[in-house]
Amino acid sequence: MARNDGIDRTFARNQDLPTLDDVAKVQEHNEREKDSYSNQDIDTTQTYRNIHFKAPTDSYAAMFDQLIADGVISTRGLKADAVKYGELIFDVNSAYFHNHGGYEYAKQFYTDAYKAAVEIVGGEQYILSAVMHADERNRAMSEALGQDVYHYHLHVVYVPVVEKQILWSKRCKDKSLVGTVKETIMQVSRSKKWESKVALDEQGNPLLTSKGKKVLRTSYSVLQDDFFNYMKAAGYTDVERGERGSTEEHLTVTQFKVAQEQQRLEDVTAQIAQTEQALDTAQAAVEKKQKELQSLQRQTKEQRTAALTVQEIRSMGKKTITGNITLTPFECSTLKDYAVNGILAKAENSRLEEKLQQVQKSATVWKQRYESLKEQARPYLEAVKLAPEKVRAFLDAILTRTQQTKQHDQPSRRKSHDMEL
User: Fold this and answer.
1) What is the CATH number of domain 10-242?
2) What is the value of pTM for the model shown?
3) Per-residue pLDDT, 319
């Protein structure tokens, strides 16, 4: 079983495509027209699994122009900067599809979701493209489960239209026709397509505020309700409606990624602390050996300084006529002392030299260990400068947005929420 909070929710979002540049970018993304994508979770080796419920016959803009030419839609009276394109995105959290078998289940689910889209849009003729993406990898769940898990969702690009009756004007020669219906057109109109509707009670009467004003249900809330109700009627009774007031897409997945990033941050921080501790230990050991080495060098120097020089020994005594050497009592006593000290000093020097060599060898080993640990720690030291800063910024942004969303969902503010789902 994939990680799941036990609640699977439908999600429906409508977004405007105000400019032709926006339309072109959405087309590039939906139709996978680019060679590479900034979104690293797109696995192009799996793009062949994407399913078109309605494939575009040309560019979105060219198809729009053809609809006008064929009289299917009309832009009569439309302002130059009016929004002429929209995109619906239908979704359920990744765990839902993973727990129901994955790809094949997603295909059937979005086959039914596309039927809902046709009803919501008002007819298949107004849909330019409808494609289920099956090539976007859910990185967090894939890493947690040790297998590839893909996030299935449906993109529907459409033209927002409403039925409009054109009446005969006063200039009509036949006065009996004035005010009657001259023709009915499907007018492109985003604002009228997504007008807020009056909320009704169980008896079908308008709901009123404490001040007697009608309560309006935003178009986005209506969209969310329509999608959920349609899928429930189609037999998908194990999903719930997306939370009201929520503007965060794939809430479960987002929370899951936050938890993963937090765990990664903790792991990196622990590794850095452990490596730094090892470095400190190695550095302390090196410094200790260096001090021992300096002490031994100092002792050796003192021993060598205390020993007699060859010149001092040669200058002692006087040669007699017979060739013998005579020493004064002081010189004889001193020479004996020097001889004893020399033997002792030689033995001590030999011991110190041997110990010095051992310490030098040990110091070399510790230095090599220190350099090795320092090299191993390099990526962690770089990570502590870069990764924590970026990850914490990412987490702060997510948590801040989540907190703002929760505050935004309070009853006192829900009335002003224009993007309720």
Assistant:
1) 3.30.930.30
2) 0.57
3) 62
